[in-house]
Design brief:
Layout lengths: L2 H8 L2 H11 L4 H8 L5 H9 L5 H11 L3 H6 L2 H14 L16 H33 L1
Helix pairs in contact: 2-4, 2-5, 3-4
Length: 140
Amino acid sequence: MSTTTDNRKNIHHGRNIKRFREMFGLKQEALAYQLGDDWSQKRVSLLEAKETIDDDILAQVATILKVPVEAIKNFDEEKAIYNIQNNYEGSHNQGPLNNYGTINFNPIDKLIELFEENKKLYERLLASEREKIELLKANK
């Protein structure tokens, strides 16, 4: 048995559709609506459970998700995780944040700055309201 056959056997079209759908923030109901009147959330759920899916349905789903059909057919989670893991582990010698520098701020200082800014805005609003009151008193 060849490794190509083994790799094809491990790819689950339905799970790949679910992954892409979730990545784009699309609910099953929305996908069913875009697929047409014959579709429901339940049918999309059943579709996502299938290991292999007909090419015409894959083409429709790919068009809706705006991804190539090959992405759904060939996405292999194990290979993606392996690739990400190797890239991450291989980058640890590059320094903090991949040589973009370190983050040098204290979140509490930022919070205090926000409170100070909020206080200044409140004082300006209060001064504006006082001016309005004085104008109303002067017009009486």
